[in-house]
Specification:
The structure is a single chain. The protein contains five helices and three strands. A hairpin with a 2-residue loop joins strand 2 and strand 3. 69% of the residues lie in helices and 12% in strands. The radius of gyration is 20 Å and the shape is elongated. The relative contact order is 0.10. Strands 1-3-2 form a three-stranded antiparallel beta sheet. Helix 3 packs across helix 4.
Length: 118
């Protein structure tokens, strides 16, 4: 059972392992959108967006509903919004660590009067 969960998680994170797919999920976290709307908001060409949406659909992360002549995409699970927020917080925590290290390095330089050599 635990191995099944680990496999699920690995496949799930593989499905998220592309910057455009993450951007699409961020867009859908704001509300349901058509391919053209996603394309416009992502600043990417339609074929790339369609390809990434197909991957997200295959992994059951988004779903599409036909409305007239367009398909409206939505997140299958609203927990994706929380996952994206947690990922953003982890990223911000790493930035804070890097800034702290750089500030300490700068303080050390000022105290010793040395500058790094290029």
């Amino acid at each position: 059972m635990n191995l099944d969960m680990q496999r699920f998680k690995a496949e799930f994170f593989k499905a998220l392992a592309h910057p455009l797919r993450i951007r699409i999920l961020e867009i859908l976290a704001e509300g349901d959108q058509s391919v053209n709307e996603i394309q416009s908001l992502a600043g990417s060409e339609g074929s790339a967006v369609s390809q990434q949406l197909q991957i997200l659909r295959a992994k059951n992360i988004v779903s599409g509903t036909k409305e007239g002549n367009k398909v409206i995409y939505t997140l299958k699970d609203p927990m994706i919004i929380e996952l994206l927020a947690v990922a953003r917080q982890i990223f911000n925590n790493h930035l804070v660590e890097i800034i702290t290290i750089l500030d300490k390095f700068k303080d050390d330089e000022e105290q010793t009067g040395t500058t790094p050599k290029n």
